[in-house]
Amino acid sequence: MMKLRRATHLLLPALLLLPAVHFAWPTAEQVNVEAAALPDAALAPAPVAPSAFLEEPAIEERAEAPLTLDAPEAALVEAVPYAPPGTPDPEPEPAFTEQTVTVASGDTLLGLLTEAGVPGADAHAALAELLPLFPANRLRPGQELLLRFDAEDETRLMALEINPGPGHTVAVERQGEGWQADEARLPEHPHLAQVEAVVTGGVFPALVNAGLPANLAYSIVRAYSHRVDFQRDLRAGDRVAVAFERMRSEDGTLLRHGRVLYAALTLSGQTQEIWRHEGPDGEVGWYDAAGRPLAGGFLRTPLNGARMSSGFGPRRHPILGYNRMHRGVDFAAPTGTPIYAASDGVVLSVRRERGYGNVIRVRHAGNTMTLYAHLSRFAPGMAAGTRVRQGQTIGRVGSTGMSTGPHLHYELHVNGQAVNPATSRLPAPPALAGRALLQYQTARTDLNRQRARLARGLTEVALAPQ
């Protein structure tokens, strides 16, 4: 009986699943009449087959087995995430069409958008938000612009993306009636690298040919120009070495070059080492092993990539044809070469003079003055009273006035007297001291330790994050 009751217990739920039908219980008379009409065999109980009921363990196994579907039935079942009643249907993703535009020489952002069919009002509004993050002068041939348009209106710009460099994306996107700009950068991991070269034809070309980016090579030339006269001091066989940062992504992709951290220039067997140092006020300078700064004083060569074409002292004037005192030094350079302020100071005059042509005079501390003549043009903002910093561009090389070709005529005056800029010794700025010196020496020692690893054959070493 226990087995029968258990089987009945399992069958009842199944019966409940059958389609609903109209059912009426028969009366006693109907039962007796129908039973009398049946043969005796029909009234005998049905024999029970051994397998008609499952043994108790088998029943329990069936009850505990998970519900499974055959493959055709399972294919009809789709997983749908549960959403509470009243949840609104998700909005469909907006449909876009995309267009990639490659920048060619002479292209502008506004011109590229106009050529792509973007209305002028949209183009100006989008660029007004984009330019603070991506100035127009950073546009380079070969860069690509990704433009997204509304799929239903191919002139309606929805977004613009550009990659200024590896791992760096700048974008502007339509937000309602306005625009919003944003930028993203991959995390950068600094590595230390070093290049070395024999100086042939100048420090700058030697470094560039060795693999140092041009802007970093310029920074080294300008740093050493405080102490080195590149026209007189360089000899065959001189060497230069520079340690600098390479910024890489997590997977090792080169994202950009970082800062120059160290340089060594060997002239006639004597090595001059310098290290980069940033003070607590954020001002960056170059210092020697004792903490003495290279900056300060005066630049002996206030422009890059030039050669001295005429020295200080009496000479035969190339135009007038007679001997007269040459009160400065001349540097031959291509027209338009930047000219730098030799030291911090205040502009005294910016004007055109008969012999000098376009000329700038700058007053400096210690009753000194510098003069820059034959300029093709002045830098924007140059006027009497303007304060300038050492190394700031103040004009461009030219051939105005009494000149036989493009060059810079450079004079240095002390107490009203012209002196030789190439040989005059001027007061040096103070060296680091106290806590500032201790911080500098600690950083210098750590950098030298990393450089020693490069000397053992490594091409790069990872640096601690800034």
From TrEMBL:
In terms of InterPro entries, this protein maps to: Cell_wall_metabolism_enzyme, Dup_hybrid_motif, LysM, M23ase_b-sheet_dom
**What start and end residues bound the annotated signal peptide?**
1-24
Q: Which UniProt keywords apply?
A: Hydrolase, Metal-binding, Metalloprotease, Protease, Signal, Zinc
Q: Quick check: keyword Protease in the entry? A: yes
Question: Ranges for the LysM domain?
Answer: 99-147
Under Pfam families, the record lists: Peptidase_M23
Requisite cofactors? Zn(2+)
Query: Which GO BP terms, alphabetically?
Result: proteolysis
GO MF annotations in UniProt: metal ion binding; metalloendopeptidase activity
PANTHER family for the chain? CELL DIVISION PROTEIN YTFB, PEPTIDASE-RELATED
Name the UniProt record assigns to this protein: Murein DD-endopeptidase MepM/ murein hydrolase activator NlpD
Q: Which organism is it from?
A: Roseococcus suduntuyensis
